[in-house]
Here is the input.
Amino acid sequence: MQRPYAVSWSGGKDSMLSLWRLWRERGAPAALVTTLIDDGSRTRSHRLRPEVLRAQAAAMGLRVVEVATSIADYRRHFSEALARLRDEDGVAAVAFGDIDLEAHRSWCREVCAELALDCLHPLWEEPREALLQEFLDAGFVTRLVAVQEDKLDANLLGRNLDLDVIAEFRRARIDLCGEAGEYHTVVVDGPCFTRPLSLHAGARERADGYCFVDFSLAGPASAGLAAAGTAPAG
Here is the structure.
């Protein structure tokens, strides 16, 4: 029997595809682990409202561990969350969604090694086209939540990632998977979801060269998911 694992979770397509590959091989993870900005109001990587990630987790029947942290304390707080999962849930491995950013993989390996955890990168060095096709063929639906303003048109925000949008990525000559941060996504449906998320695209916000759309849960059914499947980091 496979030992429990956790997934470093952004809510986007790469962490989702990593999770899906492992889920089919090992079963569902013990937890998703996501980091938030200091005050806990947004996720650190995609600036999503935490209730959106809670709704994702609930729709998959999973638990999400939220880690609010500053950049200065990021490694310490992230490691403490993983250590609790190891000690309390028997987690023996952590999966990450990086494709070829060696600096990221080295950091992940160092953190996991210090905690005697296996470090998994299910998508490592695979072709971009193949990864996107696998993601779409599996039936996942994901929407663009952020774009780098000097790389992509902000009018892409809120759109579903599909073949037309990928064609726009090609014309813009960016990494098709956005590995250098050209865009970020939020997954709203897929084969491991019991129900799709309904998101309302609100105002656009600009920061650090990015344009973000403020997604919120739409409808009473989705709102009911917001409090479910959640565990604090501390």
The chain has seven helices and ten strands. The first strand starts at residue 5 and ends at 8. The chain has one domain: 5-222. The beta strands are 5-8, 31-36, 64-68, 93-95, 118-120, 141-148, 183-189, 199-207, 210-217, 230-232.
